[in-house]
Design brief:
binds pyridoxal-5'-phosphate, globular, single chain, alpha/beta, 8 strands
Length: about 230
């Protein structure tokens, strides 16, 4: 019951904003996901390809599955046929592999470029400078089976709201700047994925279009994830 009311509360909170809710269901069992589904939730986020594939097979087909975690190139083949959006693009090599697998299943796979905004060293992603050079990379327009539709970022793990807000603000500004650039044909700046359980309110104020929320819906996870 608590999952259902968490979903309803969050959906109500998102009313009137530009953002959609991704229920981050990594490590959560099928029954809990079903509960969220029954509350009307249709977008779920996972961070492991095989786990996402198993859940895709076990759950209703009208669910949108979003890959939010670091994706290894050798795992792309498991999800290429059904994934709705990959948030965690952090290399040209990964884009190349997604393009290859997308071609095999005759799909154009939507992707977001992950931008490194946190002060921690451990988080994956491109620096802003790397993205600016990526958009002029002649290889990019050749990838007909991917479409880059925006950016994703994760803030520093801190209680300090002003740090988090500063990072989200800078990502939004970069997003706006990128939208002004001449972009390759298979790229546009439409979606900005930022905000998790602890910082989604700030992310919404700073212009997020996708919030990725796990523990505030499902409670704590049973085991830690990378
Ligand atoms: C786990 C995860 C989330 C959700 O985190 P919560 O704190 O449980 O809301 C969001 N984004 C990414 C990339 C994650 O790995």
């Amino acid at each position: 019951m608590i999952i259902k009311s968490n979903i309803k509360d969050l959906q109500a909170e998102l009313q009137g904003t530009n953002a959609r809710l991704i229920a981050v269901s990594k490590t959560q069992p099928i029954e809990k996901i079903k509960e969220a589904y029954d509350a009307g939730q249709r977008i779920f986020g996972e961070n492991k390809a095989q786990e996402m594939t198993a859940k895709f097979q076990a759950l209703p087909q009208d669910i949108e599955w979003h890959m939010i975690g670091h994706l290894q190139t050798n795992k792309v083949k498991y999800i290429a046929s059904f994934v709705s959006l990959i948030h965690s693009i952090d290399s040209l090599k990964l884009l190349e592999e997604i393009n290859k697998q997308g071609k095999k299943v005759d799909r154009v796979i939507p992707c977001l470029l992950q931008v490194h905004i946190a002060s921690e060293e451990t988080k994956f992603g491109f620096d802003q400078r790397e993205i600016v050079s990526l958009i002029t990379n002649p290889a990019l327009p050749l990838f007909k089976n991917i479409r880059i539709i925006g950016l994703m970022g994760m803030s520093t793990f801190t209680e300090d709201e002003s740090t988090i807000r500063k990072e989200f603000k800078s990502l939004k500004k970069f997003f706006n700047d990128m939208a002004e650039h001449t972009l390759p044909e298979n790229m546009e700046m439409k979606e900005l994925s930022m905000g998790m359980s602890s910082d989604y309110k700030i992310a919404l104020e700073e212009g997020s279009t996708y919030v990725r929320i796990g523990t505030a819906i499902f409670g704590s996870r049973n085991y830690s994830t990378p």
